[in-house]
Amino acid sequence: xxxxxxxxxxxxxxxxxxxxxxxxxxxxxxxxxxxxxxxxxxxxxxxxxxxxxxxxxxxxxxxxxxxxxxxxxxxxxxxxxxxxxxxxxxxxxxxxxxxxxxxxxxxxxxxxxxxxxxxxxxxxxxxxxxxxxxxxxxxxxxxxxxxxxxxxxxxxxxxxxxxxxxxxxxxxxxxxxxxxxxxxxxxxxxxxxxxxxxxxxxxxxxxxxxxxxxxxxxxxxxxxxxxxxxxxxxxxxxxxxxxxxxxxxxxxxxxxxxxxxxxxxxxxxxxx
Length: 272
Known about the structure:
The chain is of the alpha/beta class. The strands form two sheets. Strands 3-4-5-6-7-8-9-10 form an eight-stranded parallel β-sheet. It has a two-stranded antiparallel sheet with strand order 1-2. It is 39% helix and 16% strand.
């Protein structure tokens, strides 16, 4: 795949989404603004946040300071558990938009599948139809959650954002999403650092003269999955974007696929 940081995938409604994004979970204050600005300077155009992260103001400030045209950016945020329900979601969306200092969102996600997610989705469909959002999707949805949503909705989610890496290789979920034209987006793609020293990861990364983090992110690219790594370290932000000058051979992709141990760095959506 001849891709670069400016490459995009097409969502099921024709909207284009960058193949690599920048996550902002736990980033706060000036540190968040600096990190996002470094990411934008490095070429990242997909910035992922959430109302629960309490940093939408910082994301908005970094975007405003960047002088990058709005059309070049792809901004995602999420509706939190306590904001779910039809009216609450409409209000939460307006609050997020104000904090981000934006006139529209590129992608709005349901953060977790809670009791009111069908009502929440109806509100998101309304916002989408009013062209306040370019695309709507979900996060942490299992196949069961997706089946429920698909049978009670007018719009198929464009994205399902879940934890995904070789140690949590959710092959069945990936297949289901592909079948239903839902793009998978991976958070915690670097396992929160828990597996960067894994023997197989080290061996394969050395073969390609890349870091373990770069290998994990390239593995996602090979599976046509969007990665959204987070970092507040300028060097790591640069390194994480430097994954487009190599590809992983099929035999090594299989080695990585076989590392699955259902490891979750974040909560299981079934039990949260």
